[in-house]
Design a protein that fits this description.
Keywords: DNA-binding, Transcription, Transcription regulation. It holds the Pfam family Peptidase_S24. InterPro entries: Cro/C1-type_HTH, Lambda_DNA-bd_dom_sf, LexA-like, LexA/Signal_pep-like_sf, Peptidase_S24_S26A/B/C. It is a single chain. By secondary structure, this protein is of the alpha+beta class. Helix content is about 20%, strand content about 25%.
Length: about 270
């Protein structure tokens, strides 16, 4: 019986269909005119000491032979598509620019290319605007200092601040209405993807950690939004997009308990105002 082979530089295809992330990576790599080996070499230079991405490992993921990519955030960063990767991970299914053709690189027909689509006008609303039939209000979480001057902080739902979501949007993301909350992002630790002032939607029904995904976290009463990884010891690694200024944080199981660090939920949506 003939064995299936990965999708290599010659264009051979494996039996398994590539994931949407693999399709995005291949399209961007072709646009940059990089070989798989060149990409793997560039990514390996940015990895932590002792780690490496081989051409064979990358080829298996790009072809669909393997479904997971351990270093996908590094791969996306090397090709300048970290924001597009995040959109796919959040289930937003972004449209690829015309130059990112999956089958082969395309030559522009003119010096001007469209990279946007008109969706329609914005609708103004305020707290007095009635909810539509397909709308729900999602509360915003906030930090609240406990009484008696103890200095302790807890996280509660804001009494008045709410955001509106379409019921269909939540269903499409597999989010139960009662599990949906919103969190504001402060500081520059999650730039450039989530700059200061961004708002994220959080699914409190999903607290099981998928390495490299984004989660809202309660840490000693403080709200935080980070990339989360599991450690072999049972602890957690918290990572920022802005790693130059905010290095990784690692917490053992005893430290998680002592510092009251727990997962609130997975980020399924985000909004950025510039």
């Amino acid at each position: 019986m003939k064995k299936n082979t990965p999708h290599d530089e010659a264009g051979n295809r494996s039996k398994s269909a590539p994931t949407p992330v693999a399709v995005l990576f291949r399209a961007r790599r072709l646009q940059l005119n990089w070989t798989q080996a060149e990409l793997a070499d560039r990514v390996s230079k940015s990895l932590p000491e002792g780690e490496v991405l081989t051409q064979q490992t990358y080829a298996a993921f790009e072809s669909g032979k393997t479904r997971a990519a351990k270093h996908k955030s590094y791969i996306a960063q090397a090709m300048g598509i970290l924001a597009e990767l995040l959109q796919l991970e959040l289930g937003l299914d972004p449209s690829l620019p015309p130059t990112l053709n999956v089958e082969e690189p395309t030559k522009p027909v003119s010096n001007v290319e469209s990279n946007a689509e008109m969706l329609g006008p914005l609708e103004e609303w305020d707290d007095k605007t009635p909810l539509g039939d397909d709308e729900v209000e999602v509360p915003l979480l906030k930090e609240v200092e406990l009484s008696a001057g103890s200095g302790r902080v807890t996280i509660q739902e804001h009494a008045t601040a709410k955001l509106r979501f379409g019921k269909r949007t939540l269903r499409r993301q597999g989010v139960q209405v009662e599990n949906a909350v919103c969190v504001s992002v402060y500081g520059n630790s999650m730039e450039p993807v989530l700059p200061h002032g961004s708002t994220v939607g959080v699914d409190r029904g999903k607290t099981l950690i998928k390495d490299g995904d984004i989660y809202a976290i309660e840490h000693n009463g403080q709200l935080r939004v980070k990339l989360v990884y599991r450690l072999p010891s049972g602890g957690l690694r918290l990572r920022s997009f802005n790693r130059d200024e905010h290095p990784d944080e690692e917490y053992s199981v005893p430290e998680l308990e002592a510092q009251h660090l727990c997962i609130i939920g997975r980020v399924f949506w985000y909004s950025v105002l510039r």
